[in-house]
């Protein structure tokens, strides 16, 4: 029984030595060889796990009075296996970062540079968003003033279209211009509906024999 365990031990020692060597080589290999090496290490790690399972079964069949020594060795092997898996994960992360840098043409500080760039873009986006919101509020306020002026001044009013055009000229940013154009189109449509409504109301009043002062 112990001879079988020792045979598995020897196989495990040889296999883990090969895995350790390959893990160290992964980050330094060319892309094609790296991919193949990673797949090979994954396969050998599975083989090492199977050996540990076989060794564990052997230990369980050893008489209790002799099992302590083998149990201690098993704990050591499992710790070694855990370390190999951790080292392999780190190696794969380094491999992934290097491949990404090769594809993007970035240097070793690409991650930090990208983070800084993303922060700058986010700040710029927030600034533009605030500017658009302010412009939108100004346009809405201007439109409301124009409507109120129409109600109060009759034919002498400056007109919603004129106010919207003036507001459009004050928007310098491209995005603000787009927003202003949309608001201008909306205001023009509203003005047309307003005129049609007044015209229709006047005709209706005439049918009642009361001519409105429009």
From TrEMBL:
Q: Coiled-coil ranges per the record?
A: 34-61
> What are the GO MF terms of this UniProt record?
SNAP receptor activity; SNARE binding
Q: InterPro entries this protein is in?
A: SNARE (IPR010989), v-SNARE_N_sf (IPR038407), Vesicle_trsprt_v-SNARE_N (IPR007705)
Question: Looking at the keywords, is Zinc-finger present?
Answer: no
Q: Which UniProt keywords apply?
A: Coiled coil, Membrane, Protein transport, Transmembrane, Transmembrane helix, Transport
Q: What is this protein called?
A: Vesicle transport through interaction with t-SNAREs 1A
Q: Which family does it belong to?
A: Belongs to the VTI1 family.
The organism named in the record is Bos mutus grunniens (Wild yak)
């Amino acid at each position: 029984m112990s001879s079988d365990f020792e045979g598995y031990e020897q196989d495990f020692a040889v296999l883990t030595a090969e895995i350790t060597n390959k893990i160290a080589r992964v980050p330094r290999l060319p892309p094609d060889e790296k991919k193949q090496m990673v797949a090979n290490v994954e396969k050998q790690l599975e083989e090492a796990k199977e050996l540990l399972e076989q060794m564990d079964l052997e230990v369980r069949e050893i008489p209790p009075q002799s099992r302590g020594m083998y149990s201690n060795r098993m704990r050591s092997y499992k710790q070694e296996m855990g370390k190999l898996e951790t080292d392999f994960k780190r190696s794969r992360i380094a491999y992934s970062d290097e491949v990404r840098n090769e594809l993007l043409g970035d240097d070793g500080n690409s991650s930090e540079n990208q983070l800084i760039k993303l922060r700058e873009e986010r700040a710029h986006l927030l600034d533009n968003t605030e500017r658009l919101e302010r412009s939108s509020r100004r346009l809405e306020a201007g439109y409301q003033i124009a409507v109120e002026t129409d109600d109060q001044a009759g034919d002498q009013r400056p007109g919603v279209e004129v106010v919207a055009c003036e507001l459009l000229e004050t928007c310098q940013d491209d995005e603000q211009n787009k927003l202003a154009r949309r608001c201008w189109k909306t205001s023009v449509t509203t003005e047309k509906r307003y005129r049609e409504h007044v015209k229709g109301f006047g005709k209706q009043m005439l049918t009642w024999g009361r001519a409105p002062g429009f």
